[in-house]
Amino acid sequence: MSYTDIEKQDIELIAALDYDWSKLDGKTVLISGGTGFIGQFIIEVFKLRNAKYGNRIRVISLSRRGGNSEPDVTYLSADVAKPITVDGKVDYVLHLASNTHPKQYAADPVGTVTTNIFGTYNLLTLALEKQVTRFLLASSVEIYGEGSDEPMTESYCGYIDCNTWRAGYNEAKRLSESLCQSFIAQHGVDCVIARLARCFGADKKADSKAMAQFMQCAVDGNDIVLKSKGEQRYSYCYVADAASGLIKVLLDGVCGNAYNVSDDDEGVTLGGYAKHIAGCAGKKVVFDLRGANNQGVSKSVRALINTDKLKALGWLPQFTVSDALSRTYEILKRGK
Known about the structure:
Mean pLDDT: 93
Shape: globular
Oligomer: single chain
Number of domains: 1
């Protein structure tokens, strides 16, 4: 995969962070969803750690699409919803595989649930079999449900109307976290959980999340059409910061603990970010409040998360959301 200079700078920045990378020296890290957006970024960071810093990290990537293996990375085709067999030793497991955006939820609500629950169970079973050092689950801000007026800490447990198909994603992530706790209690598997905010970046694959749709409009030279008043307040996380947060939780998180991963809140609404993205292209935001088919879209209007717990481990975001959106626009514009 080819990267722009901006993307290479992002990878180099994360690879150079003052982490205890020695924990990964000569180790094998299995990543489900390794060909996904965040998974691929983490793999590039590990490859750079090997080439520049001599860490000798071996990666096994699991995904439906597989891929052509490289010296440091073995790409395997696998459906995590089915039992998984991997040859050789595995030291760490990062479970990132999941449907992650509204159109996927709407088109395949059953698969959204089963991929998360069965995938987590099968990978925890593999982790137990391989006696791994640590298992990391990538969870989501969606486990907090409708959110609260104040930024949510990891102890918050929000309201979810579980009697809807859209709740399948939220509930599956909650149950996946429960599976981790159960494997800790019953089998002694070392597990940590990272709850990711709404992630964004220069993903080259189709993405139906709002920020990605806004960005595509700008890159295509079109005005952004907003189907609401844009007053929603959400936490967001640039792909580079999501990757650094996941790696930090993997290396230094406390077994059994969950950690929110998000860029700092800038006090900007969804509509405000839409205007920022439109401004990158010299375009404007057009409001169309006549109603739309928003299948799969979250109903929460305020979902800010508190990252003090992760920051106490020594993690800090490297970007603001606004700066990262500008970087994302430049990357995608150069790739057209």
